[in-house]
Design a protein that fits this description.
Part of the 50S ribosomal subunit. This protein is an all-beta fold. Helices cover about 0% and strands about 50% of the residues. The protein has a six-stranded antiparallel β-sheet, with no helix packed on it.
Length: about 120
């Protein structure tokens, strides 16, 4: 029995704004997306301090590191490129003809301005 991978409308390198939580109003670029856990890692948002022992992999000197923690996808919205405000996303399907074949292409569209993302 195969499990379906959850779909997410937010992709890597999208500009998003936090709409709830302690970092509400901050904007940042999506670093990574985890569809299984429904979480995104946003640059400069949800920063945590982590105490790291010297000699641990990924840290040469040890001490206190400040890194970003994942945030739930429901707490962020994509920023509309035209108005620079958060917006919802719709999917528009278009028929594109290539090499004599028609192919359906899904395009993300901003609800606020109607522009392609």
């Amino acid at each position: 029995m195969a499990t379906n991978k959850p779909k997410m409308k937010i992709k890597k390198n999208d500009l998003v704004q936090v709409i709830s939580g302690k970092d509400k109003g901050l904007q940042g670029k999506v670093i990574s997306v985890d569809p299984e856990r429904q979480r995104v890692l946003v640059e400069g948002v949800n920063r945590i301090t982590k105490h790291v022992k010297a000699g641990q992999p990924g840290s040469s000197s040890g001490g206190i590191e400040v890194t970003e923690a994942p945030i739930h996808v429901s707490n962020v919205q994509i920023v509309d490129p035209e108005t620079n405000k958060p917006t919802r996303i719709r999917i528009r399907e278009e028929q594109v003809e290539r090499d004599g074949r028609t192919k359906t292409v899904r395009i993300r569209v901003s609800v606020r301005s109607g522009k392609d993302l």
